[in-house]
Structures
1.
Amino acid sequence: LDVNGNAIVNESSREAGALRRKMVADCGGTEKLIAMLSAVSLSSSSIARRMWELVSKVIGADVSKGTVGAEVAEGTGHASGTGPAKKQLVEGVVVGVQEQAAASLGDLVHGDAAMQMTVISQGAVVPLLALLRSSSQVSQENAARAIWYLCESTSNQGLIVEAGAINELVALSRTGSVRAQGLAAAVISDLAKGAIVEQEQEKEGPACEEDSSVGELKVSKGARLSVIAAAGGITPLVGLLTTGDPSGKEKAASALVQLMKDERNRDAVAKAGAIPPLVQLLDDVAPHAHEHAVAALAHLAQQSTDSQSQIAKKLVTLLSSPSEGCQRRS
């Protein structure tokens, strides 16, 4: 561990980890996990648990992570009985397998570009997006985390958007658990950042004329910022500035910063009531939240004199904060 308590990973450890992950894929492990995201049988439960244990050893995860239906997956439950009780047990097994499969895929692809492409090419995106609508909060969270990791490379993001990610993520940011909402905001933030990169690339070279379908929306390269806004993404992000956990607030602010790089989105962000919670983030304990809040407020200040006036009034109230850092940022 370094002085901050973070794990120090040398190059040989990274290479060994990548090799082990490749072995999991080469022996058909990733394909089995992807299949478990949707087509689950009772016999899959013990396999899912063993796969999770294997992946945990590969990436050093905590194998004790709780999942619905875990007792059955470990072999301590059984599917005997009839009627509602048996149905409930079977449903618990299905949910537990899906939770574990999504968690395993997320851990396998994190920080591994080659593994990300493998999993995407094997068809993981659509069933992961479907899990965002699961009745299980853990399934939603694990699936959102896996999708977030798949978005680490900008080159993957177009494929994920084409699969319908934007509408699903916006819906999750409205109705998911607090953690799931924060993860949805994290993915939206990365997709928005990727859109900026694509716009810069289009300025340097010929624009792509092909469009890809997301629900009823047409998404061309670099047009993602307006599509996220059109899908209703701004309002739940603004809400997260108040209701989210520290990470969720930070990711929501980051996403809004990226979205407002398209000047057409600034008025919508202001009308959604973003100014008060963004100013309040300046007094938040999360340092990255401060950075994103300052950037977001700077965009809004350029939007109109009315926004400038609102921001100024809110900042004046923070000058009485006992925090010297907050006073300085104000």
2.
Amino acid sequence: MGGLDKGRKEGKKEGRKEERKENNERKKERNKEERKKYRRKVYNEGKRKKERKKERKKERKKERKKERKKERKKEVWSQSEKQVKRKRAVKEMIKME
């Protein structure tokens, strides 16, 4: 009887070993897939971050361009205003004479 039990125990041990091996293989595969997903996720996040940064940079550039344009318009306006004033002054000087 003792010999039979021993054989059965050995069989159980072997079965468990095989089961553990299979479980470990599945776990490795699952981990591999999860790491792949995670890497892809991180990569995509970085890509999106770069895109947003580029967009913000473009927006700031546009804003600065608009501001410079406004400044130039103001300068031109003030210069033309000065010219008009000078012309008026010259006309008045001529009238006075």
3.
Amino acid sequence: MAMMMSALNTKVAVRPAALPRQMGSKLQAASAFPARRARVSTVTKAAKQLYFNAEDGTALKKMQKGVDKLAHVVGVTLGPKGRNVVLESKYGSPKIVNDGVTVAKEVDLEDPVENVGARLVRQAAQKTNDLAGDGTTTATVLSAAMITEGMKIVMAGTNPVQLTRGMEATVAKLVGVLKGLSKEVADEELANVAAVSAGGNMEVGMMISDAMAKVGRKGVITLEEAKSVDNNLIVVEGMQFDRGYISPYFVTDSERMTCDYDNCKLLLVDKKIKSARDMITILEEAIKSGFPLLVIAEDIEQEALATLVVNKLRGALKICALKAPGFGERKSQYLEDIAILTGATVVKDELGLSLDKVGPEVLGNAARVELGKESCTIVGDGSTELEVAARVKQINRLCEAAEAEYEKEKLNERAARLSGGVAIIQCG
């Protein structure tokens, strides 16, 4: 406050010699009036409340109360006779669910301390769901029970650090015993397990079981909304990604609006193709040998694209072009995956390769390529099985080391696409 008053009472010194005498007297007279108070804007921040655990354990008891509330509402869904929970929806009708993790996500308590306790257990349930894909209700109920009993022991005078160490040692032994008692889920049991996760829908459970039988247990199964009322299962053979042909003039089947080639060569370029002259060596070889050519690049400028289209329409070239999937570093990784599947070499500056100086030696081979307006499927010819297996192992190691769930999801998709294990369930 003293500093503020000092700043307000500071006067400006003006040399009379620099101004006319009349102006100088006016300034001196004006300085006799009190200085105008400066406008001060105040920014108020929301204060955080601090809660300390007293001798009677007030804060801990409040947190335990929040845990109990969450466990009670989630616990009703546990087991084969679990009941449903009705959830209010801000958008649309209320939802009736019997999935523990869905219920837990909707719990938001009014008391801040109780809400902290509920969020801690919800975090444990979410981690269980991420690791095992199920068991969130069991994790919530067990967490609440351990917290309740732990509170009794701590309030009786037990050191909480020693209690934690004892629990960790016990858990390590119990996990070993449970692993010995566990058994692999048989193929005929997969439908029942999947039906439970699908809310008791046996039809969806059977579709998931069929999909896993076709793409393997490490394959990727995606769900999307069907355009009709029927449920459909589509198994994609080969590597598929969401990029279609750049120009419709590349189409070979006008009815289906697709571009299909068998025994196709692939040119992979990790940069923009600006001129068709840069590809002249490869294009001449394609015309001479008559093989189909699929060009995958970061982008293709209009002049180069027009040259490819004109030669395709004249029948001189069997060719198609599309933009590489992904962006930035992920785009380069996808190109490397395609290169390993087809035996190609990615043309990029980092390897010292220039498009105008390479020839057919950088081209890859595919048994079949199918391109639509929004998708591309590449089926390998089987000559790179060892390289593909090594690449899949490398991606799986990266997946194990990844911390972000989004990164893990993308790595799993890459591994599944390389191994040809992708199934799409369209739900009507």
